[in-house]
Request: fold
Amino acid sequence: MDTALLAAQLYTIRQHTQTRDDFARSMSKIREIGYRAVQVSAIGAISDADVKQIADDNGLRICNTHIPFDRLQSDLGAVITQHQLWDCRHIAIGSMPAAFRASAEGYRRFAALGSQIGERLAADGMTFSYHNHSFEFVKFAGRAGLEILFDESDPRYLQAELDTYWVQHGGADPVAWIDRLAGRMPVAHLKDMVMLPGEAGEQAQPAMAEVGAGNMNFPAILAACRRAGVEWYAVEQDICQRDPFASLAMSFENLAAMD
Reply:
């Protein structure tokens, strides 16, 4: 695939981005791997100006972010200013606060709030997306929470940052969900799934893997992303079995070799 569309999700290397100096060293490593873009998430207390300068110095575009729900509710003007400085159009929330997860009505309330936040961001030329895990595939009267969220929100204002691993983990089909959200998914999250042996007598357990090193059908996933109009492909691995920079490099190399 076109590696110019790949972004390193910085949550993967969160332990290496907590100070300005560590952030600068890490961005240099990310660029050396070959990435030309990053998604800013879980970094330390580094000034917005420094983040932008370090990214620019390393030839990295900030293509997307994860912003906490409380900031989106209480400090949205500052979030907009921050993203204007970073020349970043795409904003996402990393997860739904626990208070909304217990019922269909909770998902509906979050859908309404997310649509309102997205409408305000759209006025400044920005998008707002929801990043899923697997708890959203719990069903309420036969409907998965993720279905409720996207069916009952405004598609103009609440978009999707679909995470392929977590869809698979939730027992759903990533390709079917990408097709379902076509035209509504500016950024996709790519991580693979592998089965690891359990303890003696226990079943194997799913674990995160570098893209192309697991069991998921990534050629089909990438084809679906192209059909859906995905702009950016963010490589993320919450938990790595090796150095996280090595994991990001493996995913980059494997994706570069895919059609």
The chain has ten helices and twelve strands. The mean pLDDT is 97.
